[in-house]
Amino acid sequence: MANLEKTLVLIKPDAFSKHYSGDIIKIYEKEGFRIVAMKLLKMDERLASIHYAEHIGRPYYEDLVGFMTSAPIIAMVLEGEDAIARVRTLNGKTNPVEAAEGTIRKLYASSGSRNAVHASDSPENAEREIHIFFNETEILDGKYQPKA
Ligand code: CDP
Ligand code: MG
């Protein structure tokens, strides 16, 4: 693979609560991405402030933290060719009104804040965000056995 990447994906509280998780994961799997780490957790304010550090102080920040801590989320690491950009394309634009047909946000997001999924936006942020949620022993990339 020319550019094998890992990226952090979160299935946000809105999508998790509406039972869209399986449909969303299916979209990533159909595109050929491998799940190399996954967990169910509930964010607290501290974790949200680390993950969304660049948004602290913005007008929507308090609402964002309230939303992200409101119900469980699924965190996962996806691996694949050009995963960072391709997963963001599958997710679609931040606001579902602007998101392309067939994207996860178009299908499952209800607003620009409650928008179903998160994905890392750069190699630097992918590396940073993956290690907020997972330690090395929880990332099974080297141990992946494709189905025979
Ligand atoms: O998630 P994405 O990278 O597409 O967007 P962002 O601009 O990095 O914003 C992070 C998240 O903050 C969004 O996904 C929204 O959940 C939330 N947000 C919001 O509620 N209102 C805004 N005006 C901008 C972002
Ligand atoms: Mg972002």
Explain what this protein looks like in three dimensions.
The protein is of the alpha+beta class and 148 residues long. The chain has one domain (4-138): Alpha-Beta Plaits. Helix content is 37%, strand content 19%. It is built from seven helices and four strands. It has a four-stranded antiparallel beta sheet with strand order 2-3-1-4. The protein binds cytidine-5'-diphosphate (CDP) and magnesium ion.
Name the features:
Alpha-Beta Plaits; 19% strand; 148 residues; globular; binds magnesium ion; 4-stranded antiparallel β-sheet; alpha+beta; 37% helix; 7 helices; binds cytidine-5'-diphosphate
Number of E-type strands: 4
Based on Cα principal axes, name the global outline.
globular
As for the CATH topology, it is Alpha-Beta Plaits
Just name the CATH architecture.
2-Layer Sandwich
Ligand inventory: cytidine-5'-diphosphate, magnesium ion
SSE blueprint and pairings:
Blueprint (H helix, E strand, L loop, with lengths): L3 E8 L1 H5 L3 H10 L3 E8 L3 H7 L9 H8 L4 E9 L1 H9 L12 H5 L8 E3 L3 H11 L15
Antiparallel strand pairs: 1-3, 1-4, 2-3
The chain binds cytidine-5'-diphosphate and magnesium ion (MG).
